[in-house]
Design a protein that fits this description.
This protein is of the alpha/beta class. It folds into four domains: about 35-195 and about 255-335, no CATH class; about 350-365 and about 590-735, no CATH class; about 370-445, no CATH class; about 460-590, no CATH class. It contains 20 helices and 22 strands. Helix 10 (about 370-385) packs antiparallel against helix 14 and helix 16 (about 555-565) crosses helix 17 (about 575-590).
Length: about 725
C-alpha cells in the first residue's frame, strides 16, 4: 500500500479537518453549564405584584425608613421566601439613607425611574431569579452566585450588571445598589457573595445555613452547607466544652482567605449570567442544542460580543469588580462603575498625594486595610474623647466615658501615648485623646473622617473588621481562638444561647461581621473576650489583667502585632505569636491591586469623609498608580465632598443629617454615565472634586441643589490632576 497521499486524498483529508474544526467551533457555541457550578440551580419566578426581584414584594414603601421588619408565619421555622424578603430589606437599608428627607423616593429608590419619573407597582420588578454555588467540588468554598433577569430584559439590546456584595454581606448585599440600577434599566444582574455571606455555624447546636438561608444539621447538609467551620466532631466537642454558645462566621473562619478570589467570583457570576440567559426557557436557541450534555440548553444568543457588561457595586463589592476587570482574560467586562472601593494598590514610592496644604508621601499612603484598621483599633477608643461634638460618641453614651479614659490611660502606661509632661506632671485623658487622634491622622487618615469615627467606634466597626480580617488573612480556624476573641449571643454581658427567633433569622439580618444579627428588638451575635479576668464577657466591658475595663486593649495589640511582627514594646514576636504573624503576612501578599485596567472605561466615586475606606489608602493612590502605569488609561475619579461611607447612618443621627449628603446618588450617576458612554459613545467627564451642599441646621429635606451633577466641564479649580516633575508624580486633589 502506497504510504504517500495523492492530491485528491490530501484534499479530502484537509476538507474533513476543516469540517471537524467548524463542528467543534459550532459545539463551542452550545450553552453548557460552567464547570464551577456545583449542585442544584434554584430558579424562582416573581410576578412583580405579590413578590418581586428588587424589593421582595415590599415595594419602595416597605423598604423605607420606619417600615417594620417582615414577620415569619412560624418564627421558629421561617421558609426560604420569608428569609429572602427579610434579607432584601436588611441589605437595602444597610447601604443607603432610606428616608424621604434624605432623598429616598425622591432622588433615588425602587420606584424612581431612570428619567426621574415614578415607576408602577411601587417599584416592584417581575422576573426570574437563579441561585447556585460556585465551588471546586470540596464544598469548602460554596460561593453563592445569583442572576436576576427582569421581564423587561431585551435580547436585542442585552446588558448585564455585576453585583458583588459589599462588606461581608450575603448574596443580596448589592440589591439596593447594582441591583436596583440594573433591574430598572432592564439589565440582568449577576451577584456574588464572594465566599463571605451570612454563613453562621452554630457550633454547639452544629447547625448551618443552606444556600437560601434555612438552617440544617451540619452533617445532614454536608456539601450543601453554605459554611461548616469544623468537620472533626471530636475537636468541635472539645471547643464547645471550653467555649459554649459560640458561632463561626464564613468570612472570618472559612480558612479560604476569600478576598483573593473576589475578582474571579465576579467573572464566574458573569459567566453564570450568560449561561442562564441562554437557557431554552429564556433566550437560548433550542435548534442549536447539542447532543449529550449540551442537549436542551440551546445555543448562545446572548454573548459577550453583543452584550454591554458593567462591573459595579460599592465598598468591597466595588473592589471585587475592579479586581475582576484587572483579571478579565476573556473580554467579559466592557466598563466599570463603582463607589468607595477598598483597593489598595502596590506601593509606588514615586507617588505624592496633595490636597490643599496637606501632602502624603509613600510612607503615609497606600496602606492595606488590615494595616490601618488594626492601627485605628488601638487608638480610636481613646481618640473618641477628642471629638465631643460627634453625634454619637462612645465617650458620652451609656456611661462609656470611663471606658475611653481607661483606654487612654492603658496606652499611656505602655508608652504608646505620652504619660507625663516635660515638667513631670501627668497628662490628662483629653490630652491623650488629642494625641491619639493626631497619630491616626498622621497615619494617612484624613481629618475629614474624624467626626464619623466615634459613631463607628460605638458600633464596634474597628474591632469587628480587625477580628474578621485577621482570621481570614491568616486562615485561622475558629478553634484556634485567635487573640482570645470569639462570637456569641449574650445574656447581660456573658455568652449565652442566641434567642431562637434571632437564630432562625440570621440569614436575613446578619451583615456577616459580628456584632450583627439584631432582629425585632432582640440582640444578635456579639464580640466576646474569652481572656477577660473572671471569665468570658462582652469585649467592650471586659477586664484586663489588672481588673481595669480598657475595652480589651490586649486583644487590639495582639491583632496589631499580627501585622507588624512586633509586640507593644517593639520587640520581635517569638514562638506561636511569630507563626501567627507569618500566616497573616503570607495572606496579605497578594491583596494589593495591580492598578492595571487594560484601558477598560472605568469610574470610581468616593466620599471625602469616608471613615471605613480612607481615600489615601484606596482610591487616590489607585488612581495615581493607574495613571502612572498607563497615560492613556480610561479611569475617571470623582471625589465627593460631605459624603461618608455609611449613608445608612444619616437618618438615625441628626449630626449626620446636618453634615452629609447621600453618596448613593452619585453611584447612580456614575452608572448612568458609564452606560451612556458604552451605549452611545458619550465622553466621560474629567476627574474632579464634586462640591456638594450639606442640608445644614434644622435639616431641611434634601433637594437637587444639595447634590450637583458630576460636571462634563468642571471648573479648573475642581480638576483632579497628575503631574510628573523630577521623576516624581504629584496627584493634586483640590481642597
Amino acid at each position: 500500500m502506497n504510504r504517500r497521499l495523492g492530491p485528491l486524498t490530501l484534499t479530502l483529508v484537509v476538507l474533513a479537518a476543516v469540517y471537524l474544526l467548524l463542528t467543534v467551533h459550532a459545539l463551542a457555541k452550545h450553552n453548557k453549564k460552567p464547570k464551577f457550578i456545583t449542585g442544584d440551580i434554584y430558579m424562582q419566578k416573581y410576578d412583580g405584584i405579590e413578590n418581586d426581584l428588587l424589593t421582595g414584594g415590599l415595594g419602595q414603601t416597605g423598604i423605607a425608613f420606619g417600615a417594620p421588619q417582615p414577620v415569619f408565619v412560624d418564627p421558629a421555622n421561617p421558609n426560604a421566601e420569608e428569609l429572602r424578603v427579610l434579607a432584601i430589606q436588611t441589605n437595602y437599608r444597610a447601604v443607603m439613607d432610606p428616608s424621604p428627607a434624605g432623598g429616598y423616593g425622591v432622588l433615588y429608590g425602587p420606584a424612581v425611574g431612570p428619567d426621574g419619573g415614578v415607576l408602577p407597582n411601587d417599584g416592584k420588578i417581575a422576573g426570574k431569579e437563579y441561585l447556585a454555588y460556585a465551588d471546586d467540588g470540596s464544598g469548602k468554598k460554596n460561593v453563592t452566585l445569583m442572576v436576576q433577569i427582569p421581564d423587561t430584559f431585551d435580547p436585542k439590546k442585552p446588558c448585564i450588571v455585576t453585583g458583588p456584595s459589599s462588606g461581608s454581606r450575603g448574596v443580596y448585599g448589592a440589591i439596593g445598589t447594582s441591583g436596583e440600577w440594573g433591574l430598572k434599566h432592564g439589565c440582568a444582574v449577576c451577584y456574588s457573595d464572594g465566599g463571605k455571606g451570612t454563613g453562621a455555624h452554630d457550633l454547639e447546636g452544629d447547625t448551618v445555613n443552606l444556600i437560601r438561608g434555612q438552617r440544617e444539621d451540619a452533617t445532614t447538609a454536608d456539601l450543601d452547607s453554605h459554611f461548616t467551620a469544623i468537620d472533626d466532631l471530636d475537636a468541635l466537642a472539645e471547643f464547645n466544652a471550653a467555649f459554649p454558645n459560640r458561632y463561626a462566621f464564613k468570612h472570618a473562619h472559612s480558612q479560604q482567605n476569600p478576598e483573593l478570589d473576589w475578582g474571579q467570583n465576579v467573572l464566574q457570576a458573569i459567566e453564570f449570567a450568560f449561561y442562564v440567559l441562554n437557557l431554552d426557557e429564556n433566550f437560548g436557541n433550542p435548534k442549536k442544542a447539542g447532543k449529550g450534555k449540551g442537549k436542551g440548553h440551546g445555543g448562545q444568543v446572548i454573548t459577550p460580543k453583543n452584550t454591554i457588561v458593567i462591573a459595579s457595586s460599592i465598598s468591597n463589592g466595588g473592589s471585587a469588580s475592579i479586581r475582576a476587570a484587572e483579571e478579565d482574560k476573556k473580554g467579559l467586562i466592557d466598563g466599570v462603575a463603582v463607589s468607595e472601593p477598598n483597593l489598595t494598590p502596590k506601593l509606588n514610592k514615586k507617588l505624592i498625594i496633595r490636597q490643599g496644604d496637606r501632602t502624603w508621601t509613600s510612607d503615609t499612603h497606600s496602606k492595606l486595610l488590615y494595616d490601618y484598621f488594626s492601627y485605628i483599633n488601638v487608638y480610636q477608643p481613646c481618640a473618641d474623647l477628642a471629638q465631643p461634638d460627634a453625634s454619637l460618641n462612645t465617650a458620652f453614651v451609656f456611661g462609656a466615658l470611663e471606658l475611653a479614659e481607661n483606654r487612654c490611660a492603658s496606652l499611656a502606661e505602655l508608652g504608646l501615648l505620652t504619660r507625663f509632661h516635660g515638667d513631670g506632671t501627668e497628662t490628662t485623658a483629653f490630652e491623650r485623646a488629642g494625641e491619639a487622634r493626631a497619630l491616626i491622622n498622621d497615619y494617612g487618615i484624613l481629618e475629614e473622617q474624624n467626626w464619623v469615627q466615634p459613631t463607628q467606634q460605638f458600633f464596634e466597626f474597628n474591632e469587628a473588621i480587625t477580628v474578621t480580617y485577621a482570621n481570614a488573612y491568616g486562615r485561622f480556624s475558629v478553634i484556634e481562638n485567635l487573640c482570645g476573641v470569639s462570637f456569641a449571643g449574650v445574656l447581660g454581658q456573658q455568652p449565652a444561647p442566641l434567642d431562637e427567633t434571632v437564630f432562625q433569622a440570621l440569614f436575613g439580618v446578619s451583615s456577616g461581621v459580628p456584632p450583627t444579627g439584631s432582629f425585632r428588638g432582640l440582640g444578635g451575635i456579639q464580640l466576646i473576650n474569652n481572656d477577660s479576668l473572671g471569665g468570658a464577657v462582652l469585649n467592650r466591658f471586659s477586664l484586663n489583667s489588672d481588673g481595669i475595663q480598657d475595652q480589651n486593649l490586649a486583644a487590639a495589640l495582639c491583632y496589631r502585632s499580627l501585622f507588624t511582627g512586633l509586640d507593644a514594646n517593639g520587640k520581635k514576636l517569638k514562638g506561636d505569636a511569630k507563626d501567627a504573624h507569618k500566616r497573616v503576612e503570607k495572606g496579605l501578599k497578594k491583596i494589593p491591586y495591580k492598578a492595571k485596567l487594560k484601558r477598560i472605561p472605568a469610574i470610581i466615586v468616593h466620599g471625602r469623609n469616608d471613615g471605613v475606606v480612607p481615600l489615601n489608602h484606596s482610591t487616590r493612590p489607585y488612581f495615581g498608580v493607574n495613571r502612572i502605569k498607563d497615560k492613556k488609561s480610561k479611569l475617571h475619579y470623582y471625589e465627593v465632598t460631605n459624603a461618608n461611607h455609611l449613608d445608612a447612618f444619616i437618618p438615625f443621627f441628626v449630626g449626620f443629617q446636618v453634615r452629609y449628603i447621600p453618596l448613593h446618588y452619585y453611584f447612580d450617576q456614575a452608572m448612568d454615565l458609564m452606560y451612556d458612554h458604552l451605549k452611545n459613545g458619550t465622553p466621560l467627564p474629567p476627574s474632579q472634586v464634586v462640591r456638594t451642599v450639606p442640608r445644614g441646621e434644622n435639616v431641611p429635606d434634601i433637594t437637587a441643589a444639595n447634590v450637583p451633577d458630576i460636571s462634563a466641564d468642571p471648573a479648573e479649580g475642581d480638576l483632579i490632576t497628575l503631574v510628573k516633575k523630577k521623576g516624581r508624580y504629584t496627584l493634586t486633589i483640590p481642597e
